[in-house]
């Protein structure tokens, strides 16, 4: 019996302004019926282009050669008409970033029905019914209403479920899932992976699971192939690759991952309190649609208190919309707060004038998530790094500034010769080093890292985390490390604070939080974290949260875990000390 | 939606007020007056004329009188075409110009979008290059060149197509007979075809690179369906923004086309009125043009909201 999909010696070239790019080199792979093949690799490894090329979906400047056989029939460079019989029918695709991958001006119901009506000749009414059933299958509630909505009206997780429904409705033999969970929250990621698992087990659909995340692959794949620079460097059964990797690169990828049970950064002797935040509240006015749009306040941060000590790292975790970035910006006086106090070294910042705060910027700095987007594209990196110095220490001479910039570049692992390069000439990891250098050059006492490593490949992520740790050890810097990624937070933090809809649900020393989580939300978050351990992942029973995050405008949303108080909608769960230093919000 | 429409209409009133005020005073700041001519009138007659048209009163008072009358829909008599009121002139001229303009725009939309889509689908191939070069010609060659050329070809020499002698009248309105409209409509449409096809191509090239087009291709949809139901709506958004002001300009006629083809539209009133210091006529056509722009921009915004559900009308 021939394989479902057999790719041999596939080469993909792109003609670019910088010359020819050989994106996929002599790649060969097979996928059998109802098998899940995991394809791992970091950005630029050619893993996505491999499958796009196989089904004739390359961008205009791409060219593929080699052989791709679907059930024994050669399909590479087949005419579009022939490919169109296959695409969307027997072979479907799920792409990363469902917001841009769904047509913005078409109702999701129609987008789901489209392939069905085209390939299976189903009439509109029947297609509608099937699409609704499909939405139920991917666990989207109120399917009838959702069918009539546009992609932008759905949450990220729901959009990806729509994508899956779209890819599944024609009953394909093979689904190519290209980074299907990237950029989704961990709990949503776990839900999406559950659906893919069900597809594989119940419907016997073969899946090509393309991801940069070894954890995503571990639980689902039967076999794994590892790609680097367009080449497949290792392939084998999932257990072999994970437990006995043969190629150095695979080993490096696995080592770069934080594993369950890894010890956090050693807590050095902590200094006195640096920053005290008391009952901080940040609200945004939201105007309702409709005739009499009434303005309500969305409390992005709703009464958060904590103290940060010198040399300490406080991890802040939570899903998108929990207020973690708003918290950071309000603490740094980049956003006006609506209530509470921020005290820096014993001084209430409410009493500080604008120029005082400008001076204080030397003491607290921030590193942002997307390194490329947060650097000025028209400014050489050296200038970007030197800007805070010029603003905050104007007395320095040009030579002194230049010298400091070079020294700082060296310190963060950048070649000082790159001082005149532009951000687009550097990689993501290098740009993030620029971001760190820019923040560190004024010698701050506190650094806020707002998802500073989230957009980076795992191997780069590990390097940046190590760099941050080194900088902290050297300078005694205090850190607020914000991330949705619980395992990265664990590697760095002494204490961790879990946010849910703008409020703290649990705050504890790192070890206690990860080994003995008390709040059901923390437990759900932790159980959703994937580990690169196939046996563990296969057995694991997850405490899944169902559905989406409730709207922060709903006053009862705060009581999701305290249903017994639902009769008092204004009640806010209080933090209770469960063990020394371990605070947990009231819950049922 | 109704509330939004009402709010927009209410918002248009101050805009109109500002336009009227500015035009009124700028017009008066220009030297000369409606009754200046090479042959000077006897002073008494001139004084009587001015008194008859309230021109002897202080400027601010004249302005208030004009505002009051305009608010009641009375735009006064034309100073030069003495037997007609401004409203009458516009009422007879506008339908002619608007009819020509509508046909020209409809033709330009049909041909322009088709060419633009074709060029985008065949990006950087000969089809693309030829459409874009022709479009460039269409933009650069002014109507006072194309109009006489077409007149020569179809009116004077006559063109033989499929063995049939083909000739068209070179001028006159003839109550809007289609034969009289062909040449002016074509001349008006040519530059619009060029602009629209370039706009359409640019937007379409952009949209065809979007991720959701890749999704549509991955669904196995045929190219026509991808273009029509996934790409076209998003790609026509820049066109919609352009169409509002462009349509207003085309509907209010063109001096060049109306002069060359001898058409009784209102395009010439803009220029004649200004040259003759025919204050009331200039005010009338400016108000007419402003109303059209406001109405068409409003329409464009509504269509924008329909095409792109992410745009909320507030």
List keywords for this structure.
heterodimer, A: eight-stranded mixed β-sheet, 25% strand, globular, B: mainly alpha, MetI-like fold, two-stranded antiparallel ribbon, 13 helices, 73% helix, flat
Overall average pLDDT of chain B: 88
CATH third-level topology of the domain at 86-271 in chain B: MetI-like fold
* Rg of chain A, Å, rounded: 26 Å
Strand order of the largest sheet of chain B: 1-2
Give the end-to-end Cα distance of chain B, rounded to a whole number of Å. 9 Å
Globally, the shape of chain B reads flat
Rg over alpha carbons of chain B? 24 Å
Describe the structure.
The complex is a heterodimer of chains A (588) and B (314). With 588 residues, chain A is α/β, with parallel strands linked by helices. Chain A contains 21 helices and 22 strands. In chain A, helix 16 runs parallel beside helix 17 (458-475). Helix content of chain B is 73%, strand content 2%. Chain B has 13 helices and two strands; from the N terminus they run H-H-H-H-H-H-E-E-H-H-H-H-H-H-H. In chain B, helix 1 (2-29) runs antiparallel to helix 13, helix 7 packs antiparallel against helix 10 and helix 12 (267-275) runs antiparallel to helix 13. The interface between A and B is medium-sized, with 35 and 26 residues.
What secondary-structure arrangement, pairings included, does this model have?
The complex is a heterodimer of chains A (588) and B (314).
Chain A: E1 5-16, E2 19-31, E3 36-40, H1 47-54, E4 62-70, E5 73-74, H2 80-86, E6 91-94, H3 98-101, H4 108-119, H5 124-137, H6 143-147, H7 156-168, E7 174-178, H8 186-202, E8 206-211, H9 214-220, E9 223-228, E10 231-237, H10 238-243, H11 248-256, E11 273-287, E12 295-309, E13 313-317, H12 324-331, E14 339-344, E15 347-348, H13 354-360, E16 364-367, H14 381-392, H15 398-411, H16 428-440, E17 446-450, H17 458-475, E18 478-483, H18 486-492, E19 495-500, E20 503-509, H19 510-515, H20 520-528, H21 534-539, E21 575-579, E22 582-585
Chain B: H1 2-29, H2 43-52, H3 59-71, H4 86-121, H5 126-140, H6 143-157, E1 159-161, E2 164-166, H7 178-208, H8 211-218, H9 223-235, H10 237-251, H11 255-261, H12 267-275, H13 279-307
Antiparallel strand pairs in B: 1-2
């Amino acid at each position: 019996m021939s394989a479902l999909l057999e790719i041999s010696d596939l080469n993909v070239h792109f003609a670019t302004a910088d010359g020819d790019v050989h994106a996929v080199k002599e790649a060969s792979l097979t996928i059998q019926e109802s098998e899940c093949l995991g394809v791992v690799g970091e950005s630029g490894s050619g893993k996505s282009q491999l499958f796009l090329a196989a089904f004739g979906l390359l961008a205009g400047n791409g060219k593929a050669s080699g052989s791709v056989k679907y059930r024994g029939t050669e399909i590479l460079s087949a005419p579009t008409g022939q490919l169109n019989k296959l695409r969307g029918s027997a072979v479907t695709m799920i792409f990363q970033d469902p917001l841009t991958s769904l047509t913005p001006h078409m109702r999701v119901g129609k987008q789901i029905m489209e392939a069905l009506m085209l390939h299976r000749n189903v009439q509109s009414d029947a297609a509608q019914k099937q699409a609704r059933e499909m939405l139920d299958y991917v666990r989207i509630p109120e399917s009838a209403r959702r069918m009539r909505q546009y992609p932008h009206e759905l949450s990220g997780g729901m959009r990806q479920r729509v994508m899956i429904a779209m890819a599944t409705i024609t009953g394909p033999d093979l689904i190519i899932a290209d980074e299907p969970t990237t950029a989704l929250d961990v709990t949503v990621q776990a839900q999406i992976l559950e659906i893919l698992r069900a597809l594989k087990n119940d419907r016997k659909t073969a899946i090509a699971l393309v991801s940069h995340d070894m954890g995503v692959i571990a639980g689902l794949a039967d076999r794994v192939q590892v790609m680097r620079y367009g080449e497949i460097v290792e392939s084998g059964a999932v257990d072999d690759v994970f437990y006995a990797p043969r190629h150095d690169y695979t080993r490096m990828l696995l080592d770069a991952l934080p594993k369950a049970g890894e010890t956090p950064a050693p807590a050095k002797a902590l200094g006195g309190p640096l920053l005290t935040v008391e009952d901080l509240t940040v609200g945004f006015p939201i105007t309702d649609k409709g005739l009499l749009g009434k303005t309500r306040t969305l409390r992005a941060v709703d009464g958060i208190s904590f103290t940060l000590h010198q040399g300490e790292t406080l991890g802040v975790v939570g899903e998108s919309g929990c207020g973690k970035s708003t918290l950071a910006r309000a603490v740094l006086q980049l956003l006006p707060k609506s209530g509470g106090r921020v005290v820096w070294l014993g001084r209430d910042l409410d009493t500080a004038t604008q120029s005082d705060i400008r001076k204080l910027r030397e003491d607290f700095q921030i590193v942002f998530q997307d390194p490329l987007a947060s650097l000025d594209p028209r400014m050489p990196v050296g200038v970007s790094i030197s800007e805070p110095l010029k603003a905050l220490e104007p007395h320095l001479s040009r030579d002194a500034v230049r010298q400091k910039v070079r020294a700082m570049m060296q310190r963060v692992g950048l070649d000082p010769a790159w001082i005149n390069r532009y951000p687009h000439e550097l990689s993501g990891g290098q740009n993030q080093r620029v971001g760190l250098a820019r923040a560190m050059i004024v010698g701050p006492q506190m650094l806020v890292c707002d998802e500073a490593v989230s957009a980076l490949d795992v191997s780069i992520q590990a390097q940046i985390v190590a760099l941050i740790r080194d900088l902290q050890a050297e300078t005694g810097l205090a850190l607020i490390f914000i991330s949705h990624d619980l395992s990265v937070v664990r590697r760095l933090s002494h204490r961790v604070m879990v946010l849910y809809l703008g409020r703290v649900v649990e705050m504890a020393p790192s070890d206690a939080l990860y080994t003995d989580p008390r709040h059901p939300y923390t437990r759900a978050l932790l159980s959703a974290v994937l580990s690169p351990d196939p046996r563990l992942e296969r057995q694991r029973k997850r405490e899944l949260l169902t559905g989406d995050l409730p709207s922060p405008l709903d006053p009862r949303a705060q009581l999701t875990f305290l249903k017994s108080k639902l009769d008092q909608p204004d009640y806010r769960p209080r933090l209770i000390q469960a063990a020394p230093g371990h605070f947990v919000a009231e819950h049922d | 939606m109704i509330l939004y429409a009402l709010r927009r209409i209410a918002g248009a009133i101050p805009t109109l007020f500002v336009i009227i005020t500015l035009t009124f005073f700028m017009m008066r700041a220009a030297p000369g007056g409606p009754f200046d001519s090479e042959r000077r009138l006897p002073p008494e007659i001139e004084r009587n004329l001015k008194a008859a048209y309230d021109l002897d009163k202080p400027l601010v008072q004249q302005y208030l009188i004009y505002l009051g009358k305009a608010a009641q829909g009375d735009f006064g008599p034309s100073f030069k075409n003495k037997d007609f009121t401004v409203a009458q002139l516009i009422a007879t001229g506008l339908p002619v110009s608007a009819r020509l303009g509508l046909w020209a725009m409809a033709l330009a939309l049909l041909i322009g979008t088709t060419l633009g889509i074709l060029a985008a689908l065949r990006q950087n191939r000969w089809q693309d290059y030829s459409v874009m070069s022709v479009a460039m010609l269409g933009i650069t060659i002014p109507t006072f060149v194309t109009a006489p050329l077409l007149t020569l070809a179809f009116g004077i020499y006559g063109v033989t197509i499929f063995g049939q002698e083909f000739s068209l009248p070179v001028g006159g309105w003839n109550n809007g007979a289609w034969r009289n409209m062909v040449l002016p409509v074509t001349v008006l449409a040519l530059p619009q075809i060029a602009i629209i096809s370039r706009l359409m191509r640019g937007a379409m090239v952009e949209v065809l690179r979007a991720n959701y087009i890749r999704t549509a291709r991955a669904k196995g949809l045929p190219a026509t369906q991808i273009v029509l139901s996934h790409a076209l709506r998003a790609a026509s958004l820049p066109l919609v923004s352009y169409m509002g002001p462009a349509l207003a300009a085309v509907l209010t006629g063109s001096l060049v086309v109306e002069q060359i083809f001898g058409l009784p539209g209102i395009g010439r009133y803009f220029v004649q009125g200004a040259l003759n210091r025919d204050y009331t006529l200039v005010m009338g056509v400016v108000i007419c043009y402003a109303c059209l722009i406001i109405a068409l921009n409003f329409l464009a915004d509504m269509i924008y909201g329909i095409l792109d559900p992410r745009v909320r009308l507030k």
